[in-house]
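Issue: ligand-bound run for inosine 5'-triphosphate - logging full I/O for the record.

Environment: standard queue, default settings, no custom constraints.

Inputs:
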Amino acid sequence: MRALVFASSNPGKIAELQALLGPQWQVKSAKDFPAVAEVDEDRDTFEGNAAKKAHAFAKATGLWALADDSGLVVDALGGRPGVYSARYAPTEPERIAKLLAELAGVPEVQRTARFKCVLCLAFPTGDERFTTGTCEGRIGLTARGTNGFGYDPVFELPHGKTMAELTRDEKSALSHRGHAFRAMLPVINALT
Ligand code: ITT
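Outputs:
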């Protein structure tokens, strides 16, 4: 069994990657390396933040290290909150309330948005590979559903359900992160 570290402490992300990679890989998480200092996600691009986290973990652990950065890009807000999605407001309910308030009066056809994920695989040698994934949808008028996290309750998919109304497997099949993970699988499985 070979090991890599996913520079995240989000158990949902770790489980999703482990399920995709199968038993020949052991996915370690940031929690397995408490001595590695928390990485400040202070870059102004998804690529920059993902690479910063991945390289910090590859360097500190000597393992291949993956990191993702993701966020919600809303067309009517000129792409905001984007790379600042986690810091748009202090708590999850406040972030959703602020988003709905900013979009008050914006008609449905102009509420288009997408989740974007950039995944970086960093090598202990300093080399790196990137994959990206997007998921298109629309910001609904109200929050619906209790699954998932973040902006999922207000992110409506083309079939009408919100991301928070999907099971974990249904979300993984169409989400930005699921697409980025699947694009990275051949790269990981070719590591020697
Ligand atoms: P780690 O950095 O520890 O992995 P995080 O929660 O900060 O976890 P991201 O940097 O990937 O996760 O995401 C930044 C923010 O973008 C996140 O806090 C959410 O508000 C939003 N977001 C990202 N992916 C999402 C998803 O699948 N569903 C809903 N919101 C999401």
